[in-house]
Amino acid sequence: MAPGRDGKRSISAAGSDAEMQAARQPPCLSPGNPVFSCMLDPKTLHTATSLSKPEMIMYKTSAGRYGEFSPLPQFLPCSYIPKEQGFSNHIRATGLFQNNTLNTALDRTRTIDFPNFQHTL
């Protein structure tokens, strides 16, 4: 009877180990975009560095921080080279199409019109 008890104990111990494994798994059930698939409490997701204040790690930047630092002189352009204004001059002289839009349709070529290649784009 003693081996039977030991067998039962090992089964129950294995069951408790499986329960502990399930308890240790993070509640992030679906891999992918952490904003939509992670079910962790957002209040606990903060950075932990000694050089900066704790911030949310779900969002790296915000619109309020855009342009916070002025550009360094090393990254500024050394010369100004204006671009040709041919397209703008043409639109200014002739105007837009009748419905005030630009023509952005693909040019029809023999390759696109060929029946075998018609639905490959």
UniProtKB/TrEMBL annotation:
GO CC terms: axonemal A tubule inner sheath; sperm flagellum
GO BP term, pick one: axoneme assembly
Keyword entries, A-Z: Cell projection, Cytoplasm, Cytoskeleton
Chain spans, region Disordered: 1-28
Main localization category: cytoplasm
PANTHER family (UniProt xref): PIERCE HOMOLOG (PTHR20899), PIERCER OF MICROTUBULE WALL 2 PROTEIN (PTHR20899:SF4)
Name of the protein in its database record: Piercer of microtubule wall 2
Source organism: Cavia porcellus (Guinea pig)
Recorded name of the encoding gene: PIERCE2
